[in-house]
Amino acid sequence: MPWCEPCERFWNPGTLTEAGECPTCGNPVDAPPETDAPPRQRVPWHFWVAITAAGIYLAWRAIQGIGSLF
Ligand SMILES: [Zn+2]
User: Which among 7, 30, 56, 69 has the fewest CB atoms less than 10 Å away?
Assistant: First the structure.
């Protein structure tokens, strides 16, 4: 709900002026931000490089560990 500070009251978005101002005092009313979903966080490519490198390293260590048993 848009809230007008000077008037200390909520306004229906439909009752505001076209510029989004309070119809009583003309104060620009803080309209709630449009419900724009935050941009999807894309996983950076170097994350997968690090994961792959860690996987290869752990696989190598596992092979070494198994090899040391015999
Ligand atoms: Zn006002």
Answer: 69
CA of 8 to the centre of ligand 1 (A): 7
Instruction: Please count the other Cβ atoms lying within 10 Å of the Cβ belonging to residue 22.
Output: 20
Whether the model clears a pTM of 0.90, i.e. scores above it, the answer is no
| Rounded alpha-carbon distances, angstroms, from residue 42 to 25, 54, 55, 68 | 44, 20, 21, 41
Q: How far is the CA of 33 from the centre of ligand 1 (A)?
A: 19
* Per-position pLDDT tens, the chain of length 70: 888 889 999 888 888 888 889 999 999 886 555 566 667 778 899 999 999 999 999 999 999 999 988 7
